[in-house]
Amino acid sequence: MSKTSSTNWQKSSYSQQTDNCVELRRQRSFPAIQLRESDDPGTVLVGTTASLGALLAALKRGVLL
């Protein structure tokens, strides 16, 4: 977990104009993706594109609810 600035975060298209959303950005220091909840921007999950893909696949299958 890390504190980060608000630059370069991409909001989920499902969030529309609400403040309660998931945001992503590419981490430049090494090939990784950062993921955070907008109402707790200081908590950031960091993983590879492969681990993010596995997380999304598990969510779509209903494995993680």
How would you describe what is shown here?
With 65 residues, the protein is an alpha+beta fold. The chain has one domain (10-59). The protein contains 1 helix and 4 strands; from the N terminus they run ββββα. A 4-stranded antiparallel sheet has the order 1-2-3-4. A hairpin with a 4-residue loop joins strand 2 (22-27) and strand 3 (32-37). The mean pLDDT is 81.
Describe the structure in brief.
The protein has one domain.
Keywords, please?
65 residues; alpha+beta; four-stranded antiparallel beta sheet; 4 strands; 28% strand; DUF397 domain-containing protein; DUF397
Tally of domains: 1
**Biggest sheet, strands in spatial order?**
1-2-3-4
Structure summary, number of beta strands:
4
**SSE string:** EEEEH
Query: What is the mean pLDDT?
Result: 81
Please report the number of helical segments: 1
Terminal Cα span: 22 Å
Strand-residue proportion? 25-35%
Low-confidence runs? none
Largest sheet entry:
4 strands, antiparallel
What's the helical proportion of residues? Answer: 10-25%
Q: Round the Cα radius of gyration to an integer and report it.
A: 12 Å
Principal-axes shape call = globular
- What oligomeric state is this? single chain
Write the layout of secondary structure elements.
Blueprint: E1 10-11, E2 22-27, E3 32-37, E4 44-47, H1 49-61
Antiparallel strand pairs: 1-2, 2-3, 3-4
